[in-house]
Amino acid sequence: MSTVFEVPAWHDAVARLVDGGDVESTCDALIDAIGLAVNHEGTCLLVFHADAPPEVIHHTIEPAAASLYLDRYLAGPYLLDPLYELALRVDKPGVCRFRELTPDRFRSSEYYRQYCERTHLLDEMDFLVDVAAGTTVVLVVGRRAKMFSKAELERLRLIAATVRAAMRKIWGRWATEHSGARRDESLHERLTRCFENFGETALTDREREITQLLLRGHSVKSIARELDIAPGTVMVHKRNLFAKLGISSQYQLFSRFIEDLSRP
Question: Which of 23, 94, 125, 257 has its CA 20 to 30 A from that of 137?
Fold first, then answer.
C-alpha cells in the first residue's frame, strides 16, 4: 500500500511549491501539501515581531471566526499567547506541538477560555522560522475533531524541512510586496507598556511580576519555580495583589487587564 508521500498528489503539491507564484497561490500549495500529510481543520500563517503587533499572511479560518478571533487577538491579547513568547525566543524549536510548551495552568487561564477554547482547536502543530532580526514566521496547523495521532505528528515532523523552506519563500515575497507598509510599532509599544506596567499604581514590582505570570497561565508552583521563591510566598503575594486590585478571581484579573488594553 502506498504511503502518503508515494502518491502523485503529494509530488504535484510539492511541484507547485517549487514553481511558486504569488503569495496566495504558494500558501494554497503549502496548505494542500500539508493536507495530504494529515487531515486538519484550519491553518494560520503569522508573522511575529519583537517591536510590532503580529501580522497575518494567510489563513483558512472561516470569515466570521476570523473576524471574531483574529481581530481580537491582534488588538492586544497576543501578548499573553505562549506561541508569541516562544516565537521571540532565541532558542526556539523549528517545529513543536503547542500543548507541550504551554504553562502548566494555561488551559484553565482566562486567556485560554477567551481566545483558544472558543476556536474549538483540540490540538495544533506549529512550524517556526526566523526570517529577520526580531521577526519570526509561524504556521499553525490545527485540529478540532480529535487530537493528532502519533503517526500524524511524525508525518508533520517529517515534512518540517519542506514546510519551513516554503515559509521562507512565502515570507520573501510577502515582505517584498509589503516593503512600503509601516508596522504599527506605536501600538505594540503601548500594549507592551500596558502589560509591563499593569497595576503599577497599586502593586509592588514583585506583585506585578506574579500578575504577569498569572495572566499567562502559570500556577502558583510554576510561578515559584520561575521566580525562585517559595510557593507559600507566591500565595501571599497573590492574596495581596488581589486585595489591592479589588478582585477575587482570575477572571476578574483578566477582565481588568483587557479593560486596560482597550484604553487609548
Answer: 257
User: Which of 18, 71, 26 is CA-nearest to residue 177?
Assistant: 26
- Determine the average pLDDT of the residues in 241-261: 89
Q: Which residues of 133-160 are buried (b: 16+ CB within 10 A; e: fewer)?
A: eebbbbbbbbbeeeebeeebbebbbebb
CA atoms within 13 A on the CB side of 174: 20
Distance of CA 49 to the CA centre of its chain: 12
The three-state secondary structure class of 229 is coil
Distance CA(41)–CA(46), nearest Å, equals 17
Coil, strand, or helix at residue 156? helix
Rounded CA separation 236/247 (Å): 15
* Length of the chain counted residue by residue: 264
pTM of the model: 0.85
Residue 16, pLDDT above cutoff 70: yes
pLDDT grade for 184, boundaries at 50, 70 and 90: low
> DSSP 3-state assignment of 130?
strand
Residue 86 identity: L
- What one-letter code names the amino acid at 68? L
Q: Measured between alpha carbons, how far is 52 from 191 in angstroms, rounded to an integer?
A: 10
Cα separation, 100 vs 83, in Å, equals 11
Torsion of CA 64, 66, 70, 75, to 10 degrees: -40
SS3 of residue 250 by DSSP: helix
All domains of the chain, ordered by start, with CATH?
A: 4-177 (3.30.450.80), 198-262 (1.10.10.10)
Mean pLDDT over 158-176 rounds to 94
d(C-alpha 254, C-alpha 259), whole Å: 9
